[in-house]
Design goal:
The complex is a heterodimer of chains A (411) and B (270). By secondary structure, chain A is mainly α. Chain A has 16 helices and 2 strands. A two-stranded antiparallel sheet of chain A has the order 1-2. Classes of the chains: A mainly alpha (411), B alpha/beta (270). Chains A and B meet through helix 8, helix 11 and helix 12 of A and helix 2 and helix 4 of B. The complex binds adenosine-5'-diphosphate and magnesium ion.
């Protein structure tokens, strides 16, 4: 054991995976052990693309994909909230109603009461935060399961939404308002998009290098320079291709960029902060988390608040996209699509496993199915059935992976 | 038979328990338990299964509150309402069930609740410290980035012990810390306990292994059916007398006194 061996590679039983083949070997091991990560959703997307593209060549066209991303965003933001609440091992069935209520509150204040845009937006979002706080208090103090609390919320806030909208039922939001522009017309100019992609690539390399440097100083193993650059460039090429291809049509919506940004922030909070660590801990073993001195109640309250707040944000974007706050806003399959997206993206219903990016990939799957079936002129009856089947597959995969994990000793 | 206060009586005790009682429904897990621990002292807490040892540890760790009695920590009367309050007092606990999160890696578990740099986790420093702690325990854990779920029982126990060494505790509670460990690792833990004592920490060690008790403990406190059943100075107590107190044989003062009372039949039948 030479002193040059990094601290974390000194155990002789440890296989050190070097280079590309090593990376591949390590990921095969992980997947075999039941740590599927984002793999199933990637495979799912490829399968869906092949099927629908062969049925209708418009499916993978720039115009359809560009539109699909816009369409996916509002519910995707709801799904991001669902990821958070699933991670602590709870559920929120009310995100659809809360998004509808938020849209209604915005509509009344902005259109009927003539409030300034910013104030109307802040009020709508704050209403979501307050709802989440109330859920948290009931959960912590009364001990009612979140399933029941949020089921009551689903009905209660739907009622409140209808009450706020009043007998008119629908409030049209003027087409020249910034919210509608953002929901329908705000696309990233292609040069700006390329600049953003380059920025992401450079940032990846810089962060990778600084990480390597501090690990090296500390005597830990480091990722090779080529691996860092290769990964960043790989991501850059992928994103660059997307920008180019979508740029053939209207491009990438700012709204979708906001969604991805929220997912990146969510991912940071979950993986790089003490709060995120405690979210995973509470979802994994609530009693162990409590005994480690974590304020478990605060973790629950904060996740409920984040989930409802994101639901309110999603509701606003949906209102912008529709240019209206309607009685049907946030109704129908919105709720279940949000939950399905989180699960399809690989967030475990059993708590403690998942990622913020699950929401992005999961909602794209849902939207792709919906778009493909719409292109085939199939109505919602088929869409519901297909989505239901996909959710069932995703949940079974989750349960199956869990079994495989425990048989491979990965709990 | 030693006094309840032990030999280090010159220094103030770290912990004094007086008349601690706890019942779960109809079951009295602890009745009027007294205990004192001094800095730089290892007290072995022994007793048969179900004697109430873990219950006492959980009370000290803030897992559940006691029903009556007083707890004095560092010359202050304290009420430990939650694990956080126990940790803040300077009590570190290795629970019998370990209380680890299977879905977190070794580093995540070691630093749970005490992460470095809360809003931008310092993973590098935590990883370095993790290796340091594990090396100190001669732990054979290939990687600190593996999930705790995939570790063996002994490795999990080592992680739990390593966790109690983080921060700067004054009192360490070890509830059967060596139950799943191999010979060499058990010896490491016993060495560690001795080092902790040299550093002036107080240790309460629960174990069923009499040889371990005699090897590292200064005093032995016996619990039987939730009650004190004698305190021994290891230096001048025989293994047989301690075992007799654990099993309830009648050759020590406390059980002799018990034997004169009408509840004798109850204490005998288990
Ligand atoms: N959470 C609990 N609920 C009910 N009874 C309990 C609980 N914890 C412990 N007990 C009871 O208290 C007694 C003492 O248990 P414990 O402290 O675990 O014993 P030991 O650790 O000495 O083996 C046992 O009779 C046990 O059944
Ligand atoms: Mg026990």
């Amino acid at each position: 054991m030479s002193t040059l061996t990094p601290t974390d590679h000194q155990d002789e039983r440890l296989r050190i995976d070097k280079g590309f083949s090593g990376m591949l070997k390590a990921s095969v091991d992980r997947i075999r052990g039941g740590d599927l990560g984002l793999l199933p959703v990637f495979i799912g997307l490829v399968v869906i693309s092949i099927i629908f593209q062969s049925l209708n060549p418009f499916f993978l066209s720039s115009a359809n994909l560009s539109n699909m991303l816009m369409e996916a965003t509002p519910v995707g933001i709801l799904a991001l909230g669902i990821v958070m609440v699933l991670l602590v091992g709870e559920i929120d069935l009310s995100v659809g109603s809360v998004s509808g209520l938020s849209a209604a509150i915005f509509g009344i204040n902005f259109v009927d009461n003539g409030w300034p845009l910013a104030l109307a937006i802040v009020t709508a979002i704050a209403s979501g935060s307050i709802i989440g706080w109330v859920f948290g208090q009931i959960y912590n103090r009364v001990g009612v399961p979140s399933f029941v609390i949020t089921l009551a919320g689903l009905l209660g806030f739907l009622g409140l939404q209808l009450f706020v909208l009043g007998p008119k039922g629908t409030i049209n939001i003027p087409f020249d308002s910034p919210l509608v522009w953002f929901g329908q017309l705000a696309f990233v100019p292609t040069p700006v998009a390329y600049a953003l992609v380059s920025f992401v690539v450079v940032l990846q390399i810089v962060l990778g290098l600084s990480r390597s440097r501090s690990r090296k100083i500390a005597g830990l193993s480091v990722e090779s320079l080529t691996a860092i650059v290769a990964k960043a460039l790989g991501l850059g090429i992928l994103l660059g291709f997307a920008v180019w291809y979508l740029g053939l049509a209207r491009g990438i919506g700012w709204m979708f960029v906001l969604f991805v940004l929220l997912a990146v922030i969510g991912n940071y909070a979950l993986t790089r902060t003490q709060w995120g660590r405690s979210v995973f801990a509470v979802g994994g073993n609530r009693e162990a988390a409590r005994r480690a001195g974590i304020n478990v109640r605060r973790v629950y309250t904060s996740t409920f608040i984040i989930t409802s707040t994101l639901a309110a944000v999603g509701g606003l974007l949906a209102a912008g996209r529709l240019a209206a706050s309607a009685q049907s806003s946030g109704g129908g399959d919105v709720n279940l699509n949000a939950i399905a997206a989180a699960v399809i993206g690989g967030t475990s219903l059993f708590g403690g496993r998942g990622s913020a990016f699950a929401a992005v990939l999961g909602i794209i799957v849902i939207q792709a199915i919906s778009s493909g079936l719409t292109l085939m002129n199939l109505d919602s009856s088929i869409r519901y059935m297909v989505t239901g089947a996909v959710v069932l597959i995703a949940v079974s995969l989750d349960a199956f992976a869990r079994k495989s994990r425990s048989s491979h000793g990965r709990g | 038979m030693a006094t309840l206060t032990g030999e280090g009586a010159s220094a103030a005790p770290v912990l004094t328990l007086r008349g601690i009682s706890k019942h779960f429904g109809a079951v009295s897990a602890l009745t009027d338990v007294d205990l004192q621990v001094f800095p730089g002292e290892v007290v072995a807490l022994v007793g048969d299964n179900g004697a109430g040892k873990s219950t006492l540890v959980k009370i000290l760790a803030g897992v559940h509150p006691h029903d009556s009695g007083t707890m004095i920590f560092d010359s202050q009367e304290v009420i430990v309402r939650s694990p956080t309050e126990s940790i803040d007092l300077g009590i570190a606990t290795v629970f019998q069930d370990l209380a680890l999160c299977d879905n977190l890696d070794v580093v995540g578990n070691l630093f749970l609740g005490q992460e470095l740099r809360p809003i931008r986790l310092d993973e590098v420093a935590m990883e370095v410290k993790a290796w340091e702690l594990l090396r100190q325990l001669s732990a054979k854990i290939p990687s600190v980035r593996t999930l705790v779920a995939s570790l063996s029982g002994g490795q999990r126990q080592t992680v739990a012990i390593a966790r109690s060494l983080l921060g700067s505790p004054k009192l360490i509670l070890l509830d059967e810390p060596t139950a799943a460990l191999g010979v060499a690792q058990t010896a490491e833990v016993l060495n560690l306990i001795e080092r902790l004592r040299e550093n002036g920490l107080a240790v309460i060690l629960i174990t069923h292994n009499m040889d371990d008790v005699l090897a590292v403990a200064d005093r032995v406190a016996v619990l039987r059916l939730g009650k004190n059943n004698g305190v021994f100075n290891v230096a001048d107590a025989s293994k047989e007398s301690i075992i007799a107190a654990i099993t309830g044989a009648t050759d020590n003062v406390v059980s002799q006194r018990e034997a004169t009372r009408p509840i004798k039949v109850e204490t005998r039948s288990k």
